[in-house]
Amino acid sequence: MIRAMVKRIREVFIYLFLALFCKANGVTSSWRGSLRHDHEDESYCLSWRLAVEVNNMRAWRTVPTQCREYIETYMIRGQYYHDLDFIINQISSYADEIAISGDGMDAWILDVDDTCISNIIYYQGKRYGCDPYDPQGFKAWAIKGGCPAIPAMLGLFKRLVQSGFKVILLTGRDEETLCQATTNNLHNQGFVGYQRLIMRTSANKGQKAVTFKSEIRQQLVEEGYRIWGNIGDQWSDLEGDFPGNRTFKLPNPMYFVP
Hints:
By secondary structure, this protein is α/β, with parallel strands linked by helices. The chain is 51% helix and 12% strand.
């Protein structure tokens, strides 16, 4: 809050300085108009991202073009990772309070894309979500197996495994075409020791993510698993039936999965 206040005060001083400079030198008001326009864009994009994260924006297809620079700044200049760290600290505090039964049925469910491993490199080429979703382009990227781990999530994953939880990775990636690449990618990035990697099979093709993941969670509960936590970057990872004792939404303003 203090940092935001300092930033806002700095902006006001800069604006006043430029206004006085323009008046003293007879410069037109175009500078002031440009500053006002930039500030309005930033405010709009901040509000847009907030609406996305609290699930007030539904079925959006692309990031607004005027927000490309804002989303780029958010994703690669620190705030995204600060937000992740804050959320993962909350997850860790909750996990520490759970008394593990010891019967091997205490489980956590983690999504894969932009939860365990990051697609920021891919989305840089898609203008951080300003371009429409390209299924073939994403498949070609995923087959390469080059997604880096999200460091804070890798740390949480290892902590959960070491604590005795069974970590189940649940992803909408296609099993037939991406299973080996995904398995190798996860292993190479340090995700070793999970209980199961569950992917979309031919039986699940055409299902919305909410339906697919709800059905899988129901199967896990029927097997006897107690789902203590469910983590994902999409609301479709967390909504539906059998969501778990607690759900945790990670930030992702680059794309929407229904």
